[in-house]
Amino acid sequence: MRDTNNILQRKMNELYIITKSPARISLLKNLGLDIEVINLDIKEKILRDPVETVLTNALEKFKGYSCGNCLKASFDTVIFLESRIIGKPKGRRDAFRILKLLSGKMHKVYTGFVVGYENNYIKDYECTKVYFRRLTDDEIYWYLSKNEYIGAAGAYRIQGYGKLLVEKIEGDYFNVVGLPLVKFFAALYQLGIDYRKLI
Question: What CATH number has the domain spanning 4-198?
Fold first, then answer.
């Protein structure tokens, strides 16, 4: 059972975010959260199951940074298409291959996160269905010229020019961006944290 009384007594005016994603950082900063960004170099694993993959990677990042009695959060996002997990492209050619695979099909975006303290945390995930338009090679090359594919799961960023590749989505848009806000703030509430005090 979580000691929520102890948690509520802590200073919770800052959240340490373990991520390299500009989109996640921007989302939280735009909400007015006081965050400290931590950039860790941890090799992400690709396991058989997408849920296991994102939760394992998020937890490894979470445990990879120690800040004492501070509130911290970590994340991982992958694409799941036709029983295969797709992570970040290894380069421009790989990004073309990935976008060619996604063209005209539905894929699922899984984002896992861990939030809390060293020994008192919650881990959860969200899944969103994304339907791509059928893309021509010329459109893919045009998109690659924008360099949004770099460091992006599935080689695209829906919040940028990548929105032009998408026909529709089913589920949480912010999950596709890389941070399922509703579940994330629900986890904070479960920890006994009033997110309004972070803003």
Answer: 3.90.950.10
